[in-house]
Amino acid sequence: MKFAAEIEKVESLKKHFKVVIYADKEANRRFLSQIDGFIDKPVKVEVLVDEDRQKEILDMISEEQRRKTYAILRDISNHIGDVIESTKLEMKHQFAAAGGPESFSLSDCSREVAREFITFLIKFCFEYGVPMSEHPKSAFDDPETYARICLETNTCCICGKRGEVHHCTGSRIGMGRNRNKVDDTGKLKICLCREHHSEMHNGAEEDFFMKYHVVPAVV
Predict the structure, then answer these.
(1) pLDDT tens per residue, range 119-133
(2) Are 34 and 1 a contacting pair, CB within 8 Å?
């Protein structure tokens, strides 16, 4: 049996990998009508992929990105007391004013646009004290990007409170020097609230980073 399908997701498991495919309604009906004959029997599968279409799909916003975007929009809506669709329109307008695309859809925009919009929304939450239902760190594949955003917005990367800069080992500013007059460009830093900053100084940096699964960044 042959039918057209699209690869939706590929997962790497311990001893093998799993491919999730998407097929239209008719192909799905045909497959289900014949699957009983293959139960407990080996099946040879030939997968033919439309390369151009697959590249297009892989470049589109992922389901996880879409879910995270709407979760953050819902947090903002609840905080300001507005409906989510109105909040979405306002946030997209502000995103465009900040240099983002003038028009895009969360149903089929690129992954890069989705990534930039999520970053914009998280910065907005940090700057205006919007409580978030999910830890914002989970929205980033790269922990250094999250660390940089926290430094840029003076936000503790652990708890989200107002933070202060901790200069990491090898990047510390000498005692007695005015931190406001020292150029610390290129130095490894992390933003922490007073409580977590004290915890950092009371133990080893590496133990702290491992405990909270965070990393420093250069800004």
Answers:
(1) 999 999 999 999 999
(2) yes
Q: Which residue has the tokens 């809506």?
A: 77
SS3 per-residue string spanning 84-113: HHHHHHHHHHHHHHCCCCCCCCCCCCEHHH
Strand partners, 21: 7
Per-residue pLDDT, averaged over 43-57, amounts to 71
CB 117 within 8 A of CB 98: no
3-state secondary structure at position 21: strand
Cβ pair 172, 188 in contact under 8 A: no
Mean pLDDT of the chain: 86
Q: How far apart are CA 56 and CA 77, in angstroms?
A: 32
Q: What is the pTM of this model?
A: 0.69
Alpha-carbon distance 126 to 160, whole Å? 7
